[in-house]
Amino acid sequence: MFVKQISVVLKNIPGMLTVMSELLGKEGVNIRAISVADTSDVSTVRFVVDEPKKALNILKGNDFSVYETDVLAVETPDHPGGLTAVVKPLKDADINIHYLYPFLGRESDQAIVILGVDKVDKAQEVLKQHFINVLGKEIYNL
Q: How far apart are CA 74 and CA 140, in angstroms?
């Protein structure tokens, strides 16, 4: 399923992630999945929240450099090698995975990952068909 991912570029100094988290938390926005990648000067924080429009408004209103992207939330079998059920059909369809990070908590008895891919529409269709054909269900709906 498509979900909105928010990306924020933060100065790579102590406390910046805390400031962002406190702003969202104070306004009742829950971070459901998060990934942080850093360079020497900045960090890119990618995350999924329960209220993306509200989060965007909060962060933009506080002068954060922020943008929104469609990503996929995919239920992944929770056993050794289970991730293969997600990544192999994408490889077979020539879809590149740019990044992947876990969803925090559980919505079902399976793990959920957030996928950033180069062909998001095609990836959703490939995974939907794969999961219906092999597992009898679609990718997870958050």
A: 5
